[in-house]
Description:
Number of strands: 2
Shape: extended
Region (Disordered): 48-74
Domain GAF: 3-59
Number of helices: 2
Radius of gyration: 16 Å
Mean pLDDT: 86
Helix content: 10-25%
Strand order of the largest sheet: 1-2
InterPro entries: GAF, GAF-like_dom_sf
Largest sheet: 2 strands, antiparallel
Low-confidence stretches: none
Protein name: GAF domain-containing protein
Order of helices and strands: HEEH
Pfam family, one: GAF
Distance between the termini: 50 Å
Amino acid sequence: MQDSRFNKDIDTRTGYRTISVMCQPILNFQGDVIGVAQCINKVTGDHQFTDQDQETAEETRPEIEAPEQPPAKF
């Protein structure tokens, strides 16, 4: 399934070929979105991300969340 929001200009300029993309928000402890984790081009099967891939990404997301406060400056 193609998403109309995908900008293929980057692939055209770089010669890279994007087949599939899965994105997950990166949240701080207040629940604010502070970034996005992106997986590109699944290497197995038909190269499409599955519901299981989505669940795995959601389960591992807390491991990459930013700390509640920035580190103190010394």
